[in-house]
Automatic annotation (TrEMBL):
SUPFAM superfamilies, per database record: Thioesterase/thiol ester dehydrase-isomerase
Residue stretches making up the Thioesterase domain: 73-139
Catalysis performed (reactions): dodecanoyl-CoA + H2O = dodecanoate + CoA + H(+); octanoyl-CoA + H2O = octanoate + CoA + H(+); (5Z,8Z,11Z,14Z)-eicosatetraenoyl-CoA + H2O = (5Z,8Z,11Z,14Z)-eicosatetraenoate + CoA + H(+); (9Z)-octadecenoyl-CoA + H2O = (9Z)-octadecenoate + CoA + H(+)
Biased segments, Pro residues type: 11-21
Compositional bias segments (type: Gly residues): 169-191
Name of the protein in its database record: Acyl-coenzyme A thioesterase THEM4
Natural source organism: Actinomadura gamaensis
GO terms of molecular function: hydrolase activity
Bilayer disposition of the protein: Peripheral membrane protein
Keywords on record: Apoptosis, Cell membrane, Cell projection, Cytoplasm, Fatty acid metabolism, Hydrolase, Lipid metabolism, Membrane, Transit peptide
Family statement: Belongs to the THEM4/THEM5 thioesterase family.
Lineage: Bacteria, Bacillati, Actinomycetota, Actinomycetes, Streptosporangiales
Coiled coil: none
Leading EC class: hydrolase
Enzyme Commission no: 3.1.2.2
Length: 204
């Protein structure tokens, strides 16, 4: 894909193993029940479903719905970037450390119609200090279908306080904190209900 050097790891950057508590080969479940990308409680979200792969990688599916259109009958590009962002974020979540997207680069290769299912594969290509380098590819309607979207990203590790400081209504106790749902079925990854909950689940 066309990518800047900001999303390419320096030569020899190591790819760490997933945290021992991270699930392998089972559905990850949502990381947060109201997440726009993966949350089951989000009415118009992407409802991305993902499974971890060997090494530090994830495979995920996203089916484009009516509510995801930009041009008539076609997925909005921002929605597709969100799906890639979400699937990339699931990779670093396997490290059991909080990360946020610092930079996301996207190549739109094919138009993606409503009703299409994207098969997204993401992997970490290196970690240096707080910076995790990641890449992703989405194929249309089959795991070996044509490539529709490619992405590369730099995620930056942040302290749990990042979410406590900047998130509105996520510290628990108000309407934003749900049961978390995540990981309560299918051996999921262990979702969070609040920033405080995130603090209990990540590994410093
Ligand atoms: C209720 C709580 C629930 C929480 C649940 C969380 C669980 C997560 C689990 C699972 C995730 C699943 C999926 C999620 C998917 C979606 C992820 C998103 O969409 S995240 C939202 C969008 N992103 C932001 O809102 C970031 C906003 N930006 C920032 O906060 C800062 O700019 C930040 C943290 C990215 C960097 O700020 P600094 O002050 O901490 O650090 P500095 O020193 O600036 O950067 C550190 C290094 O990174 C590089 N860097 C930073 N930004 C860069 C950029 N845009 N491009 C290139 N390099 C960059 C810098 O050059 C520096 O590199 P050098 O150490 O000097 O080598």
């Amino acid at each position: 894909m066309n990518r800047s050097n900001l999303t390419v790891p320096p030569e020899g950057a190591p790819v760490p193993a997933p945290h021992p508590d991270a699930p392998v080969g089972v559905p990850l479940g949502p990381h947060y029940a109201r997440c726009f990308g993966c949350g089951p409680d989000h009415p118009t979200g992407l409802h991305l479903e993902a499974v971890s792969e060997d090494g530090l990688g994830v495979s995920a599916t996203f089916t484009v719905g009516d509510v995801h259109q930009g041009a008539p009958g076609l997925a909005h590009g921002g929605v597709l970037a969100t799906a890639m962002d979400e699937a990339l974020g699931m990779v670093v979540w396997l490290l059991r450390k909080p990360y946020v997207t610092g930079r996301l680069e996207t190549d739109y290769v094919l138009p993606v119609p409503v009703g299409a299912t994207l098969y997204i594969r993401t992997r970490c290509t290196g970690v240096v200090g707080r910076k995790a380098y990641l890449e992703a590819e989405a194929r249309m309607d089959a795991v070996d279908g044509p490539v529709a979207v490619r992405a590369a990203a730099l995620f930056v590790e942040v302290p749990v306080a990042h979410f406590e400081r900047h998130g509105a209504g996520t510290s628990g106790g108000d309407g934003a904190a749900t049961s978390g749902g995540a990981g309560t079925s299918g051996g999921g990854a262990g979702g969070v209900a609040s920033a405080a909950d995130l603090g209990r689940r990540v590994n410093p």
